[in-house]
Structures are given as structure tokens and as C-alpha cells.
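Suppose a classmate hands you a notebook page containing two proteins, each written out with its sequence and a corresponding row of C-alpha cells. How would you begin to make sense of it? This section walks through that situation. The first entry is reproduced here exactly as it would appear on such a page.
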Amino acid sequence: MKKFGSALSEELRDKHGRTAIRPIKGDGVKIVRGGFKGIEGKITGVDTKLGKLFVEGVTREKIAGGKTSPVPIDASKVVITNLNLDDKLRKQRLERELASEEPKAAPKKKTSEEES
């Protein structure tokens, strides 16, 4: 199993306090690189060994039988636009991480008056 993740959209970054998360089946994504750039759809499958995703509507026609097959897209080339929170563990983990993340106070800068 390969360790991989996908970037979150700006809205989800603000909401969950994270920049990336591991994609799962059912997440809504937008492809941002490659020949299928700009296509949005749901993840229909995940290949954890290769770190690839299969997105709804992204297919390639086979020459021999005229059949279509899903095209694997690298997880780093998509942005997650909608999270699938059906998994209770995933939902709890996101909420727990958001709660534990408290805004840190910026360190005070020394002024020239304080140094003397």
C-alpha cells in the first residue's frame, strides 16, 4: 500500500484546517493536470498500490472491441472539492484534528526600545 494524498479545495482547507487528505471512493474531485484537465466527477475507485484514482466520466475507448475502460489518474493531480463523510472514523478524525488545532499567538517582535 502506497502512501498518497490529494490537495483540498480552498473552501475545504478553511473548513477542516488541512491542505491534503487521502482520497476515498465517493469524494468529488476536479482534475488539475494532464489531458483530462478541468473534468469534475466522483471517484469510482482507488488503486492503493499505484496511488491512482478512477474518476467518473474519465474513460478511454479500446480500439479492438469499441469498449471503454476507466483511465487511472494520479492522486496528486486532482483537487478534492467534496468530501465523502459516510465513513464515521474519517469524520471523527477530521473533527478531532480541527478541535485540537488552536490558533497560536504570533511571537512578539522585539522593538528597539525593549532591547536597550
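The notebook's second entry, a different protein, reads as follows.
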Amino acid sequence: MDVSFLGGPHPQRGIGIVAPFDFALDRELWRWVPDEVSLHLTRTPYVPVEVSLDLARLVSEHQTLHAAVHALSAAEPEVLAYACTSGSFVDGMAGERTMSAAMETAGGVPALTTSGALLEALAELDARRIALVTPYTASVTQALEDYLAEAGITIAGQTGLGLTRHIWKVAYRDIVEMARHAVPRDVDALFISCTNLPTYDVIPQLEAELRMPVISANQVTMWAALRRLGTSAVGPYQTLIDESARRTVRAEVPLADAPRPDAPATAGVAPEQQLSEPPGFAEPPVFPEPPVFPEFPGAE
């Protein structure tokens, strides 16, 4: 059969992704990517350590990054991204900058990290006072707060699950419930941390309910990487990547009517605009009891 008339395949532009060894959300990253861009993923070597500050440092060692970037170079990516939040904030802003520079030197192309992309996104949204949702233990969450404080960002509310493994198995309903508890009335945005926490479908729903920008680790990573290619991320009604959403997400509800920590989750929101849970949602578990998973070491 003659298929020469098809004229393809179309040229692809590549983004090289370095992820922790247990990263399980490859498909979620792809959902932000336009058709003309390909993702090339590699992972750090396995280590039998649970999610912790120690693990964050292990998966971000420069020798590890150099080997990962070298492996990706065969695919000739135009941009490199380190897709791990804790691994890129654990040593503060100086550590994040050093990581990005090390990857650029090794790969010869622009490089970024999730935590660096987070600061870019907050600047883009002019968000200086935010709420946090994390799956981490208290010590890892504190390190994130310290990183953000160093960048001049105020944390006005936060919730966490205290997990040390299997973060990718957290259900959307648990993320929604954490967000409802984390957000006071006077913040500029909500950040959902950890690249192993699924968020793609939750973001537009939370923005509709909370009336504020909601950004996540995977979203800011892909947004920043695609920006460096001179193109845009794709996604349904997400404030960071949709100008129309950015103009309207706060305009519809005055601040005085915004949800309060002690108010029902749908206070101030018109009935037709209230968050509808995706199919299969059950009543959320008693908060903040974390999900229980089988024993197995994991990374971010």
C-alpha cells in the first residue's frame, strides 16, 4: 500500500524529563502537551528510602542528574525539566538554581525544575500569599514552606496527608477535601505540591469552587517547559494557561463572599457553579485521616 501521500510524520519538538524512580504519572504530564511536542522521560536510580528529606537529596544529586541528562541527550530534547518538587526545593533557592545550571551544562539546552517553575508561575499570577496542599510529612512540608518564604511568598494555610509512599494512589476526592480545608479567604492562589499527586482534572473544578487560581506541581512544570519552547500548555479552563480563565476566576465572587474555613465548602458559589465530583466519587473520608497503602518504599 502506498502511503507516501500522507507526508508524515510531522516534526516533533522534544522535552526531556528527569523524574524520581517511582514517578507514576507519565500520562498526566502528556495531557498538558500539544500534538507537536514529545516528552522523553528517564528516571533516577531506585533507592530503598521512603519519601523524606533524605530521599529528596538522594534523587537530586548532581551525579544522578548528569547521568539522567546524558541518557536523554540521544533524543535531542530542546528543553530539560526535573520533575520533582521536593528534590528541587530541599536545598533552598540556591540549590534549585544550582540544579538547573548543572542540567543546562550537562545537556546544552535550557533546563528547569518543578520548584523553579513554581516561582515562575506565582510571579505570572502575581500571587504572594498562598495556601498549600501537600501529601508530605511535616518535615518535608516545612522545607517547602521555607523555600517559598525565602522567595518572599507567605503561606496562609496548608494541609497535608503525611504520606511516605504511594502518593500517586491518592484519590481526587481526598485532594479536593484537603484543598477545602487549606484555603482561607484572603489568599491569591492555591498550590498543590508533588509531581506524584494527580491533579489535572481537579484544577478547573477547584478553581470554579474556590474562585482563585489553583496550580499544581505537574502543571507548572509543563507550563514552564513548554514556554521555553515558545509554545503553550493545553488544558480545560486552568487559570495559569488560559487567559480567559485568568480574567474571570476571581471576578465573579467578591472577596467578602469567598469561602471561609468555617463555612460550607460551597459557600458563596452559585448552585450551578458548585463543584461536581467526577464519576465514581464517594463521600470523602473523615479528614485528615490519610489513605493506607501496602508497605513499599517510594520517592516523590
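A careful reader of the second entry would note: The longest strand covers residues 13-19.
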